[in-house]
Specification:
By secondary structure, this protein is α+β, with helices and mostly antiparallel strands. Helices cover 30% and strands 30% of the residues. It has an eight-stranded mixed β-sheet with strand order 1-3-6-5-4-7-8-2, with no helix packed on it.
Length: 164
């Protein structure tokens, strides 16, 4: 085959490719929504935050056997994120629970993530910060606080006795 003939064939393939590309409709690639449940592991009675991004709708919901149905609301004007919160049932069984996020109404795009329900009760009050302290540390802290209180009272009484 002559070089001229090869050039004509390559030019013909290029023109055909451009023609096909010109008539092919452009479909924007929409990313699948992504969802998170935070924290990913919670005790029965604990609260979780729900977030789904990339729905492209202003409404949504999250559903799980661990907490039921939760309506999600937009986090900003463009509705790029939908947020919600849920309290895990106190009698929720331990283990993995699927959480299904649905964009828009019934039949909208869906994504499922997993929530772990751990044994134990939900932490309240100090948020579990005392759990890592030993009895000796708690006693030492209490003794120091009581000593500071007594020293303050002693100083105030001495000051009152001098002025009086």
């Amino acid at each position: 085959m002559s070089p001229t003939r090869i050039r004509y064939r390559l030019a013909g393939v290029a023109v055909a490719t451009l023609a096909v590309a010109a008539v092919t409709p452009v479909v924007p690639a929409s990313a699948a929504p992504s969802a998170t449940v935070s924290p990913g592991t919670v005790a029965p009675g604990g609260r979780v935050s729900l977030n789904v991004e990339g729905c492209g709708t202003k409404t949504g919901r999250a559903t799980s056997r661990a907490f039921g149905n939760v309506t999600l609301t937009p986090g900003n004007l463009e509705a790029t994120n939908l947020f919600g919160a849920a309290t895990v049932y106190r009698d929720a069984p331990t283990g993995s629970h699927p959480v299904t996020f649905e964009c828009g109404g019934t039949g909208g795009r869906r994504i499922t993530v997993t929530l772990q329900v751990a044994p134990g009760a939900a932490r309240g009050g100090l948020g579990g910060s005392v759990e890592s302290m030993s009895t000796g540390q708690v006693a030492l802290g209490g003794t120091l606080a009581a000593s500071a209180l007594c020293a303050g009272i002693w100083i105030l009484r001495r000051r009152t006795a001098r002025t009086g």
